[in-house]
Design a protein that fits this description.
The chain is an alpha+beta fold. It has a single domain, classed as Aminopeptidase (3-Layer(aba) Sandwich). It contains 4 helices and 5 strands; from the N terminus they run βααβββαβα. The chain has helices at about 15-20, 35-45, 90-100, 120-125; strands at about 5-10, 50-55, 60-65, 70-80, 110. The protein has a 5-stranded mixed beta sheet with strand order 1-2-3-4-5, with helices on both faces. Helix 1 packs across helix 2 (about 35-45). One of its GO terms (molecular function) is acyltransferase activity, transferring groups other than amino-acyl groups.
Length: about 130
């Protein structure tokens, strides 16, 4: 990962997250009905909120997750600015979230991924489950 990117636990404002969504492929997953209201609720209520910022403070990566801090972590959002993809930011966000939730030994990670994102998650060591 580029050494000039800083990952930390941080809540972002709804406005900043909406701007970030325009620079990623994440935005298409959200229904447009009451979009701003629902995004505001999302950014204020997730139990894990991680950001990746460049040296200028620009938001270039986000991971949101829900966890019980004992057994599981459900990753709801993971996105990286298109101009910063393939630099290890997503992988570092996943690792940091897993640690924040309680660590690899104790915490199982769950998510529902877009089919195009499956290879990324497999590279992170996750296994595909079918129902």
């Amino acid at each position: 990962m580029n050494g000039r990117i800083r990952i930390r636990s941080e809540r972002v404002s709804p406005e900043e997250y909406i701007g970030f969504l325009k620079r990623t492929d994440l935005g298409s997953q959200y229904p447009r009905e009451r979009f701003e209201e629902r995004i505001a609720r999302l950014v204020h209520t997730v139990s894990i909120s991680l950001t990746a910022r460049n040296e200028d403070g620009l938001l270039v990566g986000v991971l949101f997750g829900l966890t019980d801090f004992a057994y599981w972590l459900y990753v709801t959002d993971l996105g990286v600015d298109r101009n910063y993809e393939r630099q290890g930011i997503g992988r570092q966000l996943m690792k940091t979230a897993h640690e924040a939730a309680g660590g690899e030994k104790d915490i199982a990670v769950y998510l529902i991924a877009n089919e195009n994102a499956v290879p990324f998650y497999e590279k992170c060591g996750m296994k595909r489950q079918t129902t």
